[in-house]
Specification:
It contains seven helices and 14 strands. The chain has 332 residues and is α/β, with parallel strands linked by helices. The relative contact order is 0.13. Helix content is 23%, strand content 23%. The strands form four sheets. It has a seven-stranded mixed sheet. The two termini are 28 Å apart. A hairpin with a 4-residue loop joins β10 and β11 (296-301). α1 (2-12) runs parallel beside α2.
């Protein structure tokens, strides 16, 4: 039950819902009073969160993220089933991480991009395997699509690609956004070619290297991308300046507390947003939500052990001590 609450609580603090519940036969829980107490505490906490939403939305950092795939808003926040059914896809892990972050998220299709959907967007995320609906497959054969996203990044946006983003056969690069990302994948045509040498750069964000992959066939396209993480001399996470914007690549993404924090720091960094403006803690296991209408800061511990942390706020740093899985409300 606590693991269930650990996952849903962070999303409940970002978007209101009317009810939560667990199915089953109540009589089976009678011998377990600790379970009763836990569910009671969850219900009380849920009602308090719901009441805060009734007074106004939580603060979002000035970052709007567009998750780009074939389905767009027709399949928001899921793939083709529940998390345990689609855990092998990078995008479901990206979705899970985004669900509790203090950023605005929308889902767009490739047709949406060609029809002006990037006008209010700061960051695009495209994550998937070549040919699947999440990466896009043949949609990337559209020159108009490629031109629009290239323009978007050059004018100050960011494109984050995970796995095999924009991958399609038949062009001079495998990733059609390779010029923006500064990295591409060799499917065999470049096996005899040389590769750009690089040194691993100091990362501007806290890396979660265990959540990244180890693809052996990646190579830099122009040597200008900063390699933040490499495995056996092959870049696995890069940041590439492109015009006024950024192309960011990760060979894989697996959700956990550290990778979720890495993604949030990355989103803030590419848009130049200070961590204090998003009420970030100095501990990846501790997340926050600030409700301006009530001037309430919610601080919650996702760890199963006590945590001492510092939360960075616009008014200065504040120290907190949290019990395992504890939520503190109205502590600002």
């Amino acid at each position: 039950a606590l693991q269930y609450w650990q996952h849903v609580r962070r999303a409940l603090l970002r978007q209101p819902v009317d009810r939560i519940g667990l199915g089953g036969y109540l009589s089976l829980t009678l011998p377990f009073p600790d379970f009763h107490d836990t569910i009671e505490n969850m219900a009380i906490e849920f009602r308090r969160i719901k009441e805060m939403h009734a007074h106004g939305a939580p603060l979002c950092a000035p970052v709007k993220v567009a998750v780009l795939h074939t389905w767009g808003k027709l399949r928001s926040w899921t793939l083709s089933g529940h998390f345990h059914e689609t855990y092998m896809h990078d995008l479901i892990h990206i979705n899970e991480a985004l669900s509790g972050l203090p950023v605005d998220v929308k889902y767009i299709s490739f047709e949406d991009v060609e029809n002006g959907a990037l006008a209010d967007v700061d960051v695009i995320i495209n994550a998937g395997r070549a040919g699947d609906a999440w990466s896009g497959g043949d949609a990337w054969k559209s020159d108009k699509l490629v031109a629009e996203i290239t323009r978007f990044v050059h004018e100050g946006g960011a494109f984050i690609g995970v796995g095999e983003p924009s991958a399609v056969d038949g062009y001079h690069t495998y990733f059609r956004m390779a010029n923006v990302l500064g990295i591409d994948k060799d499917t065999g045509a470049r096996v005899c070619h040389g590769k750009w040498a690089f040194d691993v750069a100091e990362s501007p964000v806290t890396l979660a290297v265990d959540a990244l992959g180890a693809d052996k066939h990646l190579y830099l396209t122009d040597g200008k991308a900063a390699v933040l993480h490499a495995v056996d001399g092959v870049p696995q996470m890069t940041m590439h300046p492109f015009g006024k914007g950024w192309g960011v690549y990760m060979s894989h993404f697996e959700v956990n507390a550290d990778s979720t924090r890495m993604l949030l720091e990355l989103l803030l960094h590419v848009k130049g947003v200070a961590q204090k403006d998003a009420y970030l803690s100095d501990c990846a296991q501790v997340e926050t939500a600030y409700f301006p209408a009530d001037d309430v800061l919610v601080v919650f511990n996702n760890a199963e052990e006590p945590v001492d942390c510092i939360v960075h706020t616009p008014n200065g740093d504040v120290k907190y001590s949290l019990a395992p899985m504890e939520t503190k409300i109205n502590v600002k």
